[in-house]
Amino acid sequence: MTSLTTYRALGRSGLLISPLTLGTMTFGTARWGAAEPDARAIFNAYVEAGGNSIDTADVYSGGTSEELVGRFVAEGHRRDELVLATKFGFSAQKGNPNAGGNGRKQIHRALEGSLRRLGTDYIDLYWLHVWDQVTPAEEVLQTLGDLVRAGKIRYFGLSDMPAWYATQLATLARAHAVPGPVSMQLEYSLLARTLETEYVPAARACGLGIMPWSPLAGGFLAGKYEPSTEGTQPAGGEGRLSGSNPFSGPFTKFTARNWQILAALREVAGQLDRPLAQVALAWTLTRPGITSTLIGASRPAQVPDNLAALEINFSPDQLAALNHASAPEAPEFFSAGLKQAVFGGVEVQGWG
User: Which InterPro entries does UniProt cross-reference here (predicted)?
Assistant: First the structure.
């Protein structure tokens, strides 16, 4: 059984974090979020259980999430014991291109704002929130490396970017012996496993730890929704996927395939006598390359429920059932079968 205090190195670095990271996107968010009293209770429940990894971003609740996190850290005098992470990249001012993206001017602007809202003079882990498709990798690497050397950030990671881009930054950093990324943050769940083809091998080769976001697929894997008679759109359910949400349109979770995955999850959860959300979270922790999985909560009671995922031990048959049901639809080209064909049908194992 894994413990919240079984700390893990994030990638090839000396930064040690809990296997579950508290995501604070819900802090101060209307509709499905947590107002300050609940946010404080969520935060305290996590750190009092031994968790040390806190994740926020400058755009969460328009900066309110960072302000609340900073307040809670100061109240408990916990700055030195916590790994505080925030992000930059999304626009802070409509019509101003230099108030968004990954350029040097924007990074410095965003960091100063985050430091002020968090009430700290350094960030432990600074995430590039999203690849802007414009700024050269060399500029991003130099800017973030300079901030490491200046002591304003300790480490940095990359979120929502192509695998080749992460590899480019990591390779440039290694070639020039300068600070490089230590982690990736990507959507990963039973419903979203496409990163296994390129990202997981890239992360392993470059020494990057992977931190999944949305491991419950916006609440879909928590069992909040039921399929309609057509088997696609939900017949009911209230949560992040209700109404306008980032997973609508082509990114919808309500597909026939996903309902089948949910059915397999229900079967395994029933065998374990555990809530679906716990089982879905526990599954991510069994996957290669995963250092710490993001958990979120809108109510304090959800924190111990999520942390209980660390207690789950799957049988080989249960893991096989989940892996089979959720296997990516596109087959892996670089397969074991291809390797055998390359080596004349002989079993060959590489180093590592």
Answer: AKR_Detox_Biosynth, NAD(P)_OxRdtase_dom_sf, NADP_OxRdtase_dom
